[in-house]
Amino acid sequence: MKSDWTNMDETEFIDGVRLEPENVLFAGKDKLRKSAADLTDEQIEYLSVAFLENDLPADQLPDLQGNLEQKRESRIVFDLIQKTKLTPPVIFYEHKSSLKRLTVKQKVFRMTTAGLSAAAAITVLILSYVFVPGFLPVRNNQVVSEIIQENSPETLLIAANKPIIVRSETVSIETDNIIPGIDISQTAEFVENTSMSETISMPDPSLAKEVITVLPVAAVFVPGSAGIDYQVPQLSLIASDNNFVAVAYDDSRGRVRRFIASAFREKILREKTYSDGPLRPYEIAKGSVAGINKLLGWDMEIKETQDKSGEVKSVYFSSTLLSFNAPVKKTDE
Amino acid sequence: MTVKEYNRAVDEYADAVYRFIRADLRDDDRANDIVQDSFEKLWNHVSEIEYPVSKSWLFSTAYHTMIDIIRKEKRMTSLEESNGMELLTDSQYTDLNEILHAALERIPEQQRSAVLLRDYEGYSYREIGDITGLSEAQVKINIYRGRVALKNYIGKIETII
Q: What are the Cα distances from residue A172, in Å, to A169, A181, A206, B1?
């Protein structure tokens, strides 16, 4: 209890002790007062940036405006800062497609499409190989001696799938020295295989038969009125045995078909030199395989192998699931 | 985030991320790599990240990848090392925006990124802070300093012109 009385007395005592402030005023207040015009350059910069960022408190806006109205330098600073707003350039990311992912539906659709495409390509290849005659030409560059049947009166030549130019000359030859059974008039023509850049001149017509039977279609002497019962293209002369299969090249094909053929070879097969001749099934299959590889990142391969004479020996197909090497049948053997 | 939403993010944000990184690095190839890397990371976390936050996530990832690259190449410019706003007097500028982008190369990385995110994407201070890992106050001061630096640069250019 005594302790409580002591505390009470002390509290009352402290309450009675108060310091009263002196009644003194600061005389230099007016000197401390500032107007908007007194804002420093740094403050103007700060307020200008805040204004640009739409971050300036409403009660500070009049200060800024007041300063800008009174100080030209501040206006310049303010204007410059307002110009620092960047405008994004109009550029786009070009590789968006590489970033995208397939949904399950898209994956199923793509796999189905790819599978069907692959199956179609392989089917075309196999069917073409089996059913289409001349799909894999085996009669290229045949030795003339294998083709000419000497006892056949309508026999003449030539098995070569390259351009042939006929150079007309008039020569006198003896019929019996050439091919038995053929009635040859007094004019004849030399056939020149331009791809081999070789012309065989025959100063002595009696040597013609020998040349023909030895050389592989470099040049052949052709009697002018040999009575060929076969419609041949202009400027070319082709004859064969009874089993001759004409090359299915139709010059009367439309421009569109020629364009498609040349574009296919140029754009899809990426051939440096390309013709507008009819597309072979092998080329279509090759293009299909290339397209599927590019689309799906697969590694299928189709390739034809040739022997030294350029004759197709076999077709090789390879994929992760299936590989085969199909030899080419020679139809005339 | 679904695959569909991921692809939507590609359509909607790839350009913006690319622009931001390209403007910051001034290198198309690097920017391309960083965008691809960022979206690859997004794809790896596609099930964890919600679509609404994917934009800031992408920007943040791209920003930090860029910072890593810059640090590796020791191209980071600190405030102390900054040699100020030396003028490219031999440059031929065609417009103010080009001048500003040239000036951007000469300000510190944090200021540059803050200004770019603010101007290109209109991000708030807080969003920029989330992307860059800075506080709002730091973002604000970076933007202020960046703007003043740009102002000084174009001021000198205007004086010359």
A: 10, 18, 10, 91
What gap in Å lies between CA A44 and CA A73, rounded to an integer? 10
Q: Does residue A98 carry a pLDDT above 70? A: yes
**Do residues B88 and B160 share a domain?**
yes
**DSSP assignment of B139-157:** HHHHHHHHHHHHHHHHHHH
Residues B103 and B53 placed together within one structural domain of the fold: no
In this structure, the answer to whether residues B61 and B117 fall within a common structural domain is no
Compute chain B's Rg from CA coordinates: 17
Specify the range with the lowest mean pLDDT, choosing from A169-183, A294-308, A309-323, B111-125: A169-183
* pLDDT (average), residues A48-65: 91
> What is d(CA A205, CA A203) in angstroms, rounded to the nearest whole number?
6
Q: Are residues B40 and B106 in the same domain?
A: no
In B, which residues are within 8 Å of A84 by CB distance?
100, 115, 147, 150-151, 154
Q: What is the CATH number of the domain that holds B69?
A: 1.10.1740
Residue A188 has pLDDT above 50, yes or no: no
Q: How far is CA A15 from the centre of its chain?
A: 98
Shared domain for B143 and B72, answered yes or no, is no
Contact A101 B39 (CB under 8 A): no
- Chain A contact for B70 (CB, 8 A cutoff): no
Please report the pLDDT score of residue A320 as a whole number: 72
CATH of the domain at B138: 1.10.10.10
Cβ–Cβ contact B62 with A under 8 A: no
Quote the ipTM score. Answer: 0.78
State which residue of chain B sits closest to A96, comparing Cα positions: B10
What residue in B sits closest to A52 (Cα-Cα)? B147
- For residues B52 and B98, state if they share a domain: no
State the smallest CA–CA distance between residue B72 and chain A in angstroms.
25
pLDDT digits (tens, 9 = 90+) for A255-284: 788 888 888 888 878 887 778 888 777 788
B72 and B53 in a single domain? The answer is: yes
For residue B115, list chain A residues with Cβ-Cβ distance below 8 A: 84, 86
Q: Say what the pLDDT of residue B46 is.
A: 85
Mean pLDDT computed over every residue of chain A: 69
Q: How many domains does chain B have?
A: 2
Q: Does B76 touch chain A (CB under 8 A)?
A: no
Helix segments in A163-247, DSSP class H? 208-214
Q: Domain residues for B40? A: 1-76
Chain A residue nearest residue B9, CA to CA: A100
